Amino acid sequence: MVKNNSSTIMNGNNHTSEHMITLNIHIPHDNVIHSMQFDIQMLINDICYNIQQHLLMTIDHDLSEYGLFINDAQHSVRSYWLDPTKTLNYYALKNEDHVEYKNRYRPLKIRLLDGTVKTILIDDSLIVAQLMVYICTKFGIANYDEYSLVYDIDTDDSINNTKTATLLRILDSSYTAENHRHCIDTSRPLVQAIDELYTYAMLKEFASIPPTISSAGRQLQEPILLAARNVVDGACRIIECSKALIVNSKEASLWQQLATHTKSVSEAIKRLATSVKEMTPGQQECERAVDELRNLFQEVDKAIINVDSLRKADKSLQFHQEQISSSSHFLTELINNIRQSSKCEPECISSYVSQFITYLEPFIHHTIHYVSYMIYRNEKIHLLEQIKSLVETSLQLIFSTKESGGNIKNLQWHKIIDNNSDLLIKLIYKLIHTIEEQSSSIGIMNGLCENVRKLISTLDTTKITHQGHFIDYQIRMIEILQQMIITIEQIHASDNIRHLANQLTRQYNELINITYGAIGTVNTNDLSIHIKNIVQDLVGNLSASILPL
Q1: What is the DSSP string of 284-343?
Q2: 10 Å Cβ neighbour count for 21?
Q3: Highest CATH level, class, for 283-441
Q4: Quick one: pLDDT at residue 321?
Q5: What's the pLDDT at 174?
Q6: Over 70: is that where the pLDDT of 117 sits?
Q7: Secondary-structure breakdown of the chain: helix, strand, coil percentages, each rounded to the nearest 5
């Protein structure tokens, strides 16, 4: 399908040309280049799959071991691997750019502290921090964060195989002990500085894939860069004034200039600190999340105040319960993601915090709607207090995430984040458990009321028998009504509400049965209708007594 230097379109059938990019795919193994066109929204992983499917290569290979590599021939330190989880649009690639499709794995020789050399297969696309975890695991080293990699140069090989040997022979031709000592003393600061710089550059905190910064990213960086330039420029002016004052310390204008430059440097440093703080990844999203959480907190407070007059939503109780349960799974996962990103992944904070608020808002609203279906007032308040605590803890988590900002060294905030995350997950689990128990209770009480309504309907459908005497039925009805009054009083004074509600329903069932006899033995039809109406009116009062419990 794809010929050498031909153009092939991938996933671009319905896109305009501005959404497409043409790349020259270099296959180092076959030493050929293919021109292919891609949608800029495609994932790097999908592009690798398309390359494997459409390009003919002379070697069988596993797709999971291959990736795309940007090779900068002029500046090798600027070469980097493309992240398979990113899209093409993430990188500042242009039409006709060259990209290598090659194996990410290669052997690496490692000299351990005891001098032994071992060879392992490493993923070349990983940063040093990730490699250290893998390498230390291979070698059985637990404290991987205390180790790093240092480039090892064999001194004998470097002398024999490089032009350094020529320089050494020239030096040896005029060798004296004094010249040798002078060379050592003169070069020591340079060698030491190079060693320190190299060691610093190879630390896993700094050795990573060079980021490709977009024009929008450059614009966002400008406040920080401007403040930093002002600090450097002001410091240079301070040094120049200081040099001038050494020559002429009595010149008043120089002292005035020094004071002005010192003040400007101080202000620039403050602006730099402020800009760095404001531009920390996720700061704006965290601030917006705090505003949203405060609004939710006010909504829950309002629901607690108006707990007796909460309006039921159009959806059913089961619908709200399902939505609450579904959202809880996503929330617990996002809490753990926020915990991780706030410690060492600042670039992910914005996304996770925004998703967290997106799921938390409907979670709280569905819970408030669920409360409107609940029966007992004290349990309504208890559940609303639970979601109030949940919102408060969410606020604390976002606050601590904002302060930590993904800084791996901000350990004091890491502990606070762990505590808030654990507490928030526990509150969610507790809320779900409470709702499951409440759903069972609501079903029981609604069933009792439904039974009462069915009983009252039988007065119009049941065939009435004319047996016994009216006075006997009248006495029995009075006794049952007295028992029902006692039961209702016990309900308002007892904690065993469900049992008493069942007892009240049984008493009403018995009252209905007695009513059949009373209606059948009454002397006039008007009195029969009057008794029936009184008993039917009683069902409304009985349901009203059961539902608010």
Answers
A1: HHHHHHHHHHHHHHHHHHHHHHTGGGPPPPSS-HHHHHHHHHHHHHHHHHHHHHHHHHHH
A2: 21
A3: mainly alpha
A4: 82
A5: 58
A6: yes
A7: 65, 10, 25
* pLDDT of the residue at 193: 66
Angstrom distance (rounded) from CA 380 to CA 24: 65
55-104, pLDDT tens digit by residue? 776 666 677 788 899 887 776 667 888 988 888 888 878 888 889 988 88
Asked if residues 117 and 109 have their Cβ atoms less than 8 Å apart, the reply is: yes
Architecture of domain 215-277 in CATH?
Answer: Up-down Bundle (1.20)
Instruction: Give the mean pLDDT of the chain.
Output: 77
Give the pLDDT confidence score for residue 423 in this predicted structure. Answer: 94
How does DSSP classify residue 1?
-
Please determine, for residue 213, whether its predicted confidence score (pLDDT) is greater than 70.
no
Identical fold between 7-103 and 108-201: yes
Q: Residue 270 and residue 278: Cα distance in Å, rounded? A: 12
The closest of 265, 270, 243, 263 to 254, measured between CA atoms, is 243
- For domain 108-201, give the fold: Ubiquitin-like (UB roll) (3.10.20)
Judged by average pLDDT, the poorest of 111-115, 322-326, 375-379, 456-460 is: 456-460
Q: Compute the distance between CA of residue 169 and CA of residue 185 in angstroms, rounded to an integer.
A: 19
- Indicate the SS3 state at residue 79: coil
What is the pLDDT at residue 54?
A: 79
Prediction pTM value: 0.43
Domain ranges of the chain: 7-103, 108-201, 215-277, 283-441, 462-546
- Spell out where 31-92 has E strands: 32-39, 66-70, 80-81
Asked if 148 and 203 touch (Cβ cutoff 8 Å), the reply is: yes
Whole-number pLDDT of residue 155: 42
Six-digit token string for 15: 């896109």
Mind giving me the DSSP string for 380-391?
HHHHHHHHHHHH
Cβ atoms of 37 and 21 within 8 Å: the answer is: yes
Number of C-beta neighbours around residue 527 at 10 A:
13
Q: How far apart are CA 405 and CA 499, in angstroms?
A: 54
**What fold, for 462-546?**
A middle domain of Talin 1 (1.20.1420)
* Class for the domain spanning 7-103: alpha beta
What is the 8-class DSSP label of residue 310? P
Length of the chain as a residue count: 549
Query: Beta-carbon neighbour count of residue 142 at 10 Å?
Result: 8
**CA–CA separation, 515 and 333 (whole Å):** 59
Distance CA 164, CA 156 (A): 11
- pLDDT tops 80 at residue 389: yes
- Condensed to tens digits (0 to 9), the pLDDT of residues 217-271 reads 677 678 878 888 888 888 888 888 888 877 777 778 888 888 888 888 888 888 8
Secondary structure, 3-state, 415-469:
HHHHHHHHHHHHHHHHHHHHHHHHHHHHHHHHHHHHHHHHHHHHHHHCCCCCCCC
Contact 372, 379 (CB under 8 A): no
pLDDT at 145 over 80: no
**Other CB atoms closer than 10 Å to residue 376's CB: what's the count?**
16
Higher pLDDT, 35 or 436: 35
In contact, 220 and 281? CB cutoff 8 Å: no
N- to C-terminal Cα separation, the chain? 74
